[in-house]
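Changelog excerpt

This revision adds worked examples to the README so contributors can see how folded entries look when concatenated. The first example is reproduced verbatim below.
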Amino acid sequence: MTQKFDVVVIGAGPGGYVAAIKAAQLGLKTACIEKYQDNEGKIALGGTCLNVGCIPSKALLDSSWKYHEAKVGFSIHGIEAKGVSIDVPAMVARKSNIVKNLTGGVSTLFKANGVTLLEGHGKLLAGKQVEVTALDGTTQVVQAENVIIASGSKPIDIPPAPVNYDTIVDSTGALEFQSVPKTLGVIGAGVIGLELGSVWARLGADVTVIEAQDKFLPAADEQIAKEALKTFTKQGLKIRLGARLTASEVKKKQVTVSFTDAEGEQQMTFDKLIVAVGRRPVTTDLLATDSGVDLDERGFIYVDDQCATSVPGVYAVGDVVRGAMLAHKASEEGVMVAERIAGHKAQMNYDLIPSVIYTHPEIAWVGKTEQQLKGEGVAVNVGTFPFAASGRAMAANDTGGMVKVIADAATDRVLGVHVIGPSAAELVQQGAIGMEFGTSAEDLGMMVFSHPTLSEALHEAALAVNGHAIHVVNRKKR
């Protein structure tokens, strides 16, 4: 007998598992399908983010930063730490244990909320039926009133550097190194490449990042991106812009890459090479030909602003649809869709999705960049405040970077908050909260911020928008 559900979710990543839990909380009979297996061959929930993405990379970023601090940053505090060393297998094991705890936590939440887990590969058939192929190859078909596709994304492969899971790895493989490579190449200076490159550079690897684009971090505000490039270069990351990879050759446990840049043909040899050129949606064997769901020209599932596909009752969320490939965007889309299925008129504000790069210093932003606004012909006032003038940052010996607030020159409404520096993600989130409620720079400037905090940098940058900063010299208006 065919199992019937109000909602069937394909995929248990940040979009899928959140959608499933929310749907169940709203009283809908819900199932979630997942096929990802951990190293022990067990189904692991949480998708890329929990298993091989956001969470494990942050664990390694934090461990590597603590090692770097102990090795070179303690002496200024009067702390002497001699003979500091790193046990890479122990660091990686800690990362794996955190992942295990969190994926197990999602399983517990499924049980607590009454979500039925169906182990296997999900495929949408016609008439909102979903075929589930179990790990042993057996199949069953379940019937759904509503289907939410949350199949996620996977790393993009590039022909000049095919991943061999040894010398050449993708972002997943870069989380499993058992020793620090002497030389490390990273293809791609995006979020993933910079974060993973930072981890191994702090631990002692000689890291070169090869990026095809001429511009560094083109999605970020130009002023912030310039500061970031300067900072990473000072930290020892060698970033080669305008460098297009043409070939790679593996010999004697090393890889030689060929690329062209402004100086012509170049070659470099590395112990390890990480390919981090982006991700693509997972749609392999996901949709039957008569399912009725359409893909756009880039291979993403076509959806409207509420994540509805071309088939009534079928939705798609997260990395498999348009927009930023961010876990928090996927989760909020999952919540929106579950609420809409339950009859609520939920909407999502796509203009205020924060972006974060978890290097050190962190880089984060929300809203529009100064160059975007100028391109749109919007007159703006800009206020900045350097962490070098922050008492709290000085106390922490973490004074690199700045906060930048951009406001509409006519209305004073805040249109963008951009930060490079300590706790950038947390400060940008404060900006996002204010922007959600239509804050002006003056509003932020009139609020009381506790002292001494890093948050005061946001306060001062907001004051600086209109030339009212207290703890930094205000720029004279032209």
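The second example, added in the same revision:
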Amino acid sequence: MQTEHIKALFFKYKEQGLSHRYITNKHIEPLLDNMVNKLQIETIGHSVLNNPIYGVKIGNGDKRILMWSQMHGNESTTTKALFDLLNTLLSDEPDVTHILSSCTLYIIPILSPDGANAYTRINANQIDLNRDAQDLTQPESKVLRNVFKAFKPHFCYNLHGQRTIFSAGNVNKPATVSFLAPAQDEACTITPNRKIAMEVIAVMNAALQEVIPNQVGVYDDAFNINCVGDTFQSENVPTILFEAGHYADDYARDETRSFIYMAYMASLDYISKNEVTGVHYESYLEIPENEKLFFDTIIKNAKIGDVITDVGILYQEKLIENKIHFIPKVDKIENLEAYFAHKTIQANSLEVLSFERELLKVDYENVFVIMNNEKISLLPK
């Protein structure tokens, strides 16, 4: 399937009922209700706070693909793209019917509904579910494990979101989408199982390079058996980590959502049409590894006290009245020549003060600073 065609399908079937970063059961339940006569929807368990966890099954093919999103409740971009995908697969588009005839998808849209409500990485017991794959101490972890055992997937899609700090290698390009074929042993051996995951990632990367060139990265594959991806990979099920990252001026992650959708469609099209053996894995190894080289804002050549230096600012995501707000926070005051910024402010050696006209310090939070007696906004455009 051509990338341009996939892009057109996205705009045609984008789910208009989901936007921005705060996505909870309350947002997806009406959408699931509208689909109840078209696919199999079930409550597969409950969270710590007794919120339902939903499972969605679509397709009747032999190739089984398990997809779960919002294991971390504040990582919602992949969830939005899942509903764009479902809208597409439920359409009468002749170009997508082969996916449903070749594949069966089992989708958990929000694995951590409590974390989604609170907009946190952790669940209501303050546990990171992506470190609970072995101990299975949490009800949400047990739900995923039970689905994995019952569905017996041939592929797993572990869907996440990443911070704005990542670059796609040592370049001034954000890692808008990142992937990983997790290790399945301490030696990080490139096993036949991992090669299959790598081959699928290579296909997605090729498609994404057409729309976001040099903005795709991969993560370090250091092995941690407590992580879900490493656990499933170690059990010989090809597992792919997806990470939705930053695109220029897209703090709502509604542009990145389209690229995640394209990755979904490109990979499902490929899997449905091919027996993936891992023989075409090598181009995966050419994808640059993510580095932490970005700030949301850098104020260059600012006078702080008696020193001319740079100020690096990162946004803190805060849930206020059911909306995500981005609060600028000073992270570093030092020479930041080796770093990049999504927004750059040139101070030209002018004094930069806090909004209270005090000396700017690390950990200072405010949406403004004072420069040349003017208020300068630190917020995204």
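Reviewer comment on example two: The mean pLDDT is 97. The longest helix spans residues 192-209.
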